[in-house]
Design brief:
Elements lengths: L9 E4 L2 E8 L6 E10 L5 E7 L7 H7 L4 E5 L4 H5 L5 H8 L7 H14 L7 E5 L8 H12 L7 E4 L6 E6 L25 E5 L10
Parallel strand pairs: 4-5, 5-6, 6-7
Antiparallel strand pairs: 1-2, 2-3, 3-4, 8-9
Helix pairs in contact: 1-4, 4-5
């Protein structure tokens, strides 16, 4: 464990840097993170953006998440399901408030803003986090993401994380088709090569704050 300041980058391990991104949530000081690996010969680093437990977002947060390889964003609830959930009005107001949780629509809007600020094709993976078991469905979260991703001319793979099982392992810092080639088989087409390949386990949100 170590202390950190909002927006101030610090080193997690050799070649691995982390920048805390402040989020609005009613549990107190809450942060998302931008994590970057070592830079390659072209000055580019494999990067992950992770934000969960937030009720709203702003332009500064979208800027902080731009140009990551993997973007992990909260898609907590479907608005109609939340309103019809039978939960107490107080709990519903908390979830829907600016310091609560992002709906599928809000999460998708944040993704759109990040993609609009990023180099074309840079964001390759979208991981949907913290889906409510009572007030959301994976199909609804994916439909919300697809509705905005269809507006872009490049492909972003969507992975919907579950709370009770791990996701697949995603490889960063490698050309999208390089991981599919057998080891030792060189590509016939020259490609920009990274200095390191980083493996990121499938992301899932395991926090328990009563919003499930």
């Amino acid at each position: 464990m170590r202390p950190f300041e909002s927006g101030e980058e610090f080193v997690v391990a050799q070649g691995l840097r982390c920048r805390p991104l402040p989020l609005r949530h009613d549990s107190g000081a809450t942060f998302g993170f931008r994590i970057e690996g070592p830079r390659d010969l072209f000055g580019q680093a494999a990067a992950v953006g992770y934000v969960a437990d937030l009720g709203c977002w702003d332009e500064a947060l979208a800027d902080g998440l731009a140009d990551v390889d993997l973007l992990a964003v909260e898609f907590n609830h479907d608005l109609a399901m939340e309103l019809a959930s039978g939960r107490s009005p107080r709990l519903i107001d908390r979830v829907l408030g600016d310091e609560g949780h992002l709906s599928n629509t809000q999460g998708a809007a944040l993704v759109r803003a990040v993609l609009g600020r990023s180099e074309i094709g840079r964001v390759r993976h979208l991981v949907q986090l913290h889906l409510s078991r009572q007030c959301n469905r994976p199909t609804l979260a994916r439909e919300a993401a697809k509705a905005i991703l269809d507006d872009f001319a490049f492909r972003v793979e969507v992975h919907t994380a579950r709370q009770d099982e791990p996701g697949i392992t995603l490889l960063l810092g490698v050309a999208p088709d390089a991981a599919k080639r057998p080891r030792g088989l060189a590509s016939r087409t020259p490609r920009r090569r990274a200095t390191a390949q980083q493996a990121l386990p499938g992301l899932e949100d395991s926090r328990s704050d009563g919003i499930k």
